[in-house]
Design brief:
Structural class: mainly alpha
Helix content: over 70%
Radius of gyration: 27 Å
Number of strands: 0
Oligomer: single chain
Largest sheet: none
């Protein structure tokens, strides 16, 4: 004869293990996502620093920096550049916006 109570107990144990494993898996996925986001942020900071240094050393012109800011930086974030050599003027922002994606604006 089959003992249903033992089967139910075993089922509960297995369900608890499953829930614990799923929770741990979700935690690991969250940790991976956070690490990827940190790495992405760091890449952006390092690249931005390299671009600024290249402009300071004259390897890249400030005009390229202004075009990049005008074309690829959100309006909200463009305020960060106000008062600097990279501040996008309204005219350069309009010119940069008129170029098709992937076109460096004739550069």
């Amino acid at each position: 004869m089959v003992n249903l109570s033992k089967i139910r107990e075993r089922e509960q144990v297995l369900l608890q293990r499953k829930a614990k494993a799923e929770s741990e898996l979700a935690r690991l996925h969250k940790k991976q996502k956070e690490a990827a986001r940190r790495d992405d942020t760091r890449r952006k900071i390092v690249l931005g620093g390299a671009l600024l240094k290249a402009m300071d050393e004259g390897v890249l012109s400030s005009e390229i920096g202004r075009k990049l800011v005008a074309r690829f930086v959100s309006e909200r974030d463009q305020k960060l550049f106000e008062g600097s050599a990279l501040a996008a003027s309204a005219a350069s922002a309009e010119r940069a916006a008129s170029y098709p994606p992937g076109d460096g604006g004739g550069e």
